[in-house]
Specification:
Elements: H1 11-34, E1 39-50, E2 58-64, E3 69-72, E4 84-89, H2 90-93, H3 98-111, H4 117-131, H5 138-142, H6 149-164, E5 170-180, E6 186-196, E7 199-202, E8 209-215, E9 217-219, E10 225-229, E11 234-238, E12 244-256, E13 263-267, E14 274-276, E15 282-293, E16 300-306, E17 310-311, E18 316-317, E19 319-325, E20 337-339, E21 345-347, E22 350-360, E23 376-384, E24 389-392, E25 396-397, E26 402-410, E27 427-428, E28 437-440, E29 445-450, E30 454-456, E31 459-461, E32 463-468, E33 477-487, E34 505-513, E35 517-520, E36 524-526, E37 530-540, E38 555-556, E39 592-594, E40 602-606, H7 652-671
Parallel strand pairs: 17-28, 30-40
Antiparallel strand pairs: 1-2, 1-4, 2-3, 3-14, 4-13, 5-6, 6-7, 6-11, 8-10, 8-12, 9-11, 12-15, 13-14, 16-19, 18-25, 19-24, 20-21, 22-23, 22-26, 26-27, 26-28, 29-32, 31-36, 32-35, 33-34, 33-37, 35-38, 37-39, 37-40
Helix pairs in contact: 3-4, 3-6, 4-6
């Protein structure tokens, strides 16, 4: 049987071979990526001492063709002269423990290529001491320095002590960055701490430069990146937007001379590997951010509305507050904040001062400020310390009829500077805003009394009005007094007879009433006998109506005929309110009246005494025989014409005087009668 030619190999075996080759290639590539290496050739001795005994044993460094130097680390292997090495990270090679790697890195950085041969010999001895002396002591190798063996031994141990002391060998370095945003502007400070074998230690300021990159701020020159020495502060300018400033800083250090990464010249043959100078540096970086109130002013505002548009006297009235950010606040839509003692951020507190003005006799016109002499019901305060919110003020009690208006304001002086008061802008509302106006309708009362309660014959009667409860300074009302009668029977007090269809009306008169006081209506003529009574209705009068008596209007009651009161009106409040509000104003008084029968509003009119001539005397009969004469008849008094006093008989002046006295006495008696009370 002939042997199978390789060309005719099984296809499966060829495929498997290709895969193995591919895997080997990938493994090599990955190994190269994980352990970056470069090749160098060892030329020969560098700085050191050749032993005089055999003129072959060397203690010192070796020179490489790339200009580097290195110390042997494998005392049991041949000298590396003439061999090739690959550069790798010795810390990752697993050649020595981490702390020994830190010591080797420190030796190579500090004494990697000294010019003094005995210093190089000491560095070589210190390196062998770390990597292993193959069962020998230090003196065994130090003797290669010939007469300087003791000096080399001492120097090597000194190097090892330096490596273990503060500021010596290190495992690595840690960066940090500090942001300070207090006050206007702020600062950034990079820091660096080295993890020495003797313990961590902050690197002295200015030792290394860090690259600092800012977000949310710039350096004073306007850049966002700068080189800043460690431990040194650099001023920054946070971006100003919203209520806070948030700054982030990133700091990075490159190729720092710390840590345990040493450059290992790994021999490609059987000779010794080398601790090569120019150890790998370490990088360190950190990030930090901080948020603080910015320096922008903050302006709040209050959207307000009265708790009730219509109320009654004696009701409590509050102001409804919607506290929010003013649309023109430099902070945009964000509420201003301040930093508390524990470093947290809290909303700037504000105090809303609310004042209830009134009562005013008519709806006030809108104005930038309240009137200088405007009456004040009360002033209350509401503390807002949680930012935008809806709140209700403490209430005020409405004392009387009229219009009431809330105004609100925020005074920056009420907020301490340390709580943001130095950045707070003030605010105040306008006056007379419709949403802040409350109306309390008046409930006036009118007490009435007829000028007479008994009238003999024809005459003229009027209605006397005692008015209370009209808003001071308000518009007048028109009181229409209507005289019902004549009726055949006296109406019972308290009744409301049918009117006007079921009862006759003698007449009506109107009295203009500008305010509280006592007034007398124009009189109404009466002549027919019977019973009469007054009723009234009151309606708001025109704003332009004069308070003085006019044609057909009543007159204020005089002291002589006024039952009670002075008739003077109260002073007007808010005299500088200006023009009435453009919004419709129906006034504070609604129409009212009283159609009931009251005793002191009732009048009885009686016919005057008869004025017909006396009857002709009958003839006196003759006396009967023997009878006595009858006494003469008494003379009949002369009758008077009603209200004139003119005699129609022969009574003469005495009769006229007697009749006049009787009429005057009757009128006086009626004048002392009490007035009836009428209320709406």
């Amino acid at each position: 049987m002939h042997a199978r030619h390789p060309v005719f190999m099984n296809p499966r075996r060829r495929l498997l071979g290709g895969l193995l080759l591919l895997l080997a290639t990938l493994s090599a590539a990955l190994a190269g990526a994980a352990q970056p290496a470069s090749a160098a050739h060892t030329l020969g001795h560098g700085s050191g001492v050749l032993w005089d005994v055999d003129h072959a044993s060397w203690i010192g460094s070796y020179r490489l063709d790339d200009g580097s130097s290195g110390y042997c680390i494998d005392v049991t292997k041949p000298q590396p002269a003439g061999s090739d090495v690959d550069y790798v990270d010795g810390q990752l090679s697993g050649l020595v423990p981490a702390d020994d790697a830190a010591r080797l890195a420190y030796l190579s950085r500090t004494w990697g290529d000294p010019a003094d041969p005995f210093e190089a010999a000491a560095a070589q001895l210190a390196t062998w001491t770390i990597t292993g002396l193959a069962g020998h002591d230090q003196a065994y190798f130090a003797r290669r320095a010939n007469g300087h063996a003791g000096e080399v031994l001492d120097a090597a141990n000194h190097m090892l002590r330096r490596a273990d002391a503060a500021g010596g060998a290190s495992r690595g370095a840690t960066a940090s960055v500090r942001l300070d945003l207090t006050g206007p502007g702020g600062s950034v400070t990079p820091e660096l701490v080295v993890d020495y074998l003797a313990g961590p230690q902050t690197v002295p300021p200015g030792t290394h430069d860090a690259v600092v990159t800012l977000r949310g701020a710039t350096f004073e020159d306007g850049s966002r990146e700068a080189s800043v020495p460690n431990g040194r502060s650099r001023g920054i300018r946070p971006d100003q937007a919203g209520a806070t400033e948030t700054v982030a800083a990133e700091v990075s250090y490159r190729d720092l001379p710390y840590g345990g990464r040493f450059r290992l010249g790994r021999n490609t043959g059987a000779a010794q590997s080398l601790l090569v100078t120019s150890s790998f540096g370490v990088d360190a970086g950190a990030r930090a951010s901080a948020t603080a109130p910015n320096s922008l002013p903050f302006r709040p505002q209050v959207q307000t509305s009265t708790g009730s548009v219509v109320a009654e006297a004696g009701d409590p009235l509050a102001d409804e507050l919607t506290v929010e950010v003013h649309p023109e606040s430099p902070t945009g839509g964000a509420w201003g904040v301040y930093t508390t003692a524990d470093g947290s951020l809290r909303p700037i507190p504000v105090v809303v001062s609310s004042t209830l003005w009134g009562p005013f006799p008519r709806r006030p016109a809108e104005a930038a400020e309240p009137p200088a002499d405007g009456p004040i019901v009360c002033a209350v305060e509401t503390v807002i310390d949680e930012g935008p919110v809806r709140r209700t003020t403490p209430p005020c009690v409405l004392p009387a009829a009229g219009y009431y208006v809330w105004t609100d304001s925020i005074d920056p002086g009420r907020t301490p500077p340390e709580r943001g008061g130095d950045r707070l802008l003030g605010w105040s509302s306008g006056f007379g805003v419709a949403a802040e106006t409350t109306r309390v309708d008046a409930t006036p009362a009118i007490e009435t009394m007829a000028s007479v309660n008994h009238q003999t014959g024809a005459g003229c009667v009027s209605d006397r009005l005692g008015v209370t409860g009209l808003p001071p300074g308000g518009d007048p009302i028109e009181v229409e007094s209507t005289l019902i009668g004549p009726l055949a029977e006296r109406p019972a007090p308290g009744n409301v007879p049918e009117h006007p269809g079921g009862a006759p009306v003698t007449g009506s008169v109107t009295t203009t009433v500008p305010g509280d006081g006592e007034y007398e209506s124009p009189c109404i003529a009466v002549s027919a006998p019977g019973f009469y009574y007054f009723v009234f209705s009151a309606t708001p009068g025109p704003r332009t109506a004069s308070t003085a008596a006019a044609s057909g209007a009543g007159r204020p009651a005089t002291d002589a005929d006024r039952p009670t009161g002075s008739g003077r009106t109260a002073p007007t409040a808010g005299s500088d309110l200006g023009e009435p509000a453009a919004e419709p104003d129906d006034g504070l008084v609604t129409a009212f009246g009283d159609w009931r029968v009251h005793e002191f509003e009732s009048i009885e009119v009686v016919a005057p005494p008869s004025t017909s001539p006396p009857a002709t005397p009958r003839p006196t009969p003759a006396l009967p025989p023997g009878g006595q004469a009858s006494p003469p008849p008494t003379p009949t008094a002369s009758a008077l014409l009603a209200l004139t006093g003119t005699s129609v008989g022969d009574g003469g002046p005495v009769s006229i005087a007697a009749a006049t006295a009787t009429i005057i006495a009757g009128l006086a008696g009626l004048g002392l009668a009490l007035r009836s009370r009428r209320r709406p």
